[in-house]
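Long-time lurker. I teach an intro course on protein structure, and each term I like to show students one example going from raw sequence to a predicted 3D structure in C-alpha cell notation. This year I'd like something fresh instead of my usual example. Would anyone be willing to generate the C-alpha cells for the chain below so I can use it in lecture? Attribution to the forum is fine with me.
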Amino acid sequence: MAVTTLTVRQPEAGGMYLWARTDYGPWHGFLCFWVYWMGTAFWFPGAAMFYMSAAGFGNSRLSLVLASLAAIWIALGTNMIGVRIGKWTENLGAIASWILALLLGAAAVLVWRQKGSATEFQLLPSLDWNTISFWASIAYGMTGFEVAGMMGGEIRNPARVLPRAAWYSAIFSVLFYAGSTAALLVILPAGQISDLDGLGQVGETAGRVLGVSWLAPVIAALVLCSAVGQFGGLGSSASRMPFAAGVDGLLPAAFGKLHPRWQTPWLSIAAIGLVASILLLLIQLGDTARAAYQTVISLMVISGFLPYVYVFGSAWKAGKRLSAVLGWSVSALAILCSLVPSGDIHNVWLFELKLAVGTAAVVGSGYLVYRGGTAAKVI
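-- Reply from a regular --
Happy to contribute to a lecture. Here you go:
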C-alpha cells in the first residue's frame, strides 16, 4: 500500500530514490538508493549460491562460485539488450518457479501416500537461537514490491494496477513459500534439509522413494531457470535508481545515459553485476561455504531493510500511517533477527565482524560517492 501510494504520487523511474529525495532531501535520497542498491548486490551472491547448490553445483566450492558468476551475467546480459529481450528470462523464471512448486507439491503427496510425512508438523514454531535468523529471511521473502516503484514510469495506470498487484503478490507469495516448505518437510525431516542445497536433497530423496530417476535433474533445470529469471528481473529494475542518480549528477554522467542502440541503462546493470561478483568472491574468505552464505544473507537483510525507514517515512507523510507503523516494526525485527548467527556459524566473532564492517562499508561508501558527486557538481 505504501509503494502504491508513492508510485502514484511520483510515477517516474527511480522509486525510493525519488521518494526519499522529495521528502528528506538529496543526501537522504542518495543514501536510500545506495544502501538498497548495495543490498541488492548482496542478494545476488546469496541467491546465486543457493540456486546453484540446488542445481547440483554445490559439491565443489570452485564449481559453485563459477556457476554462480555465470548465472548472474547471463541474466544481466539479456537485460542489457532491453526489456523486450530480458522479459523472456523473467517470464521463464516465473513459470519455472511455479512449475517447481507444483512439482514439489505433487512429489510430496505421492511420498506421503507411500510412507507418510517425514516431519511431524506443529502449528506453533519452537523458539531456537539457531533458527532466529530464519525469521529475517521469512520477512525478506515478503519484500520486493518496491521494485514496481522503481519502474513507475513504465507502468500504465499505476493507481489501478498496483493495488491489485500488491494483494495478489502478497497472497501468492505466502502460498508459494508455505506450500513449498511444507512439501520439503513431508519428504525429508527438517534437520536433514540444508538451507543451501535443500532442494537438491529433496529431489534426490523423492526420486528414490518414487522410483523416478528424472525428478532430480528436472528440479535442477527448473531451479536454474528460476534463478536466471530472478537475477534479470531484480537487476534490471534496481538499475533504474543509479540511472536516476546519474541524471541528477550524483553519479558519473555515464550512469544517466542510455545505450544508443538498446536504450537501456546498461552501465547501471553492469555495475551491479560487477559489485555482486566481487562480493561473491570476498565472502568466501575465512569460513565454510555455508557460513559465507549465512553472512551474505544477513548483510542482504540489513541492507535491504534499512532503506524501508525512508520508504515508510514517506508513506507516513503521504497519509498511510498504518502501513508506515507496521512496516517500521517488521523492518526493525528483521534486522535484529539477522544479527543472530545460525548453527552453521562456528566463528561468531568473525560473523559479527563481517556484518559490522559490511554495513559500515555500505553506508561509508555511499557517503564518499555522494560527497564526490556533489563536489563535481560544484566544480
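Some talking points for your students: The mean pLDDT is 80. The CA atoms of residues 272 and 323 lie 30 Å apart.
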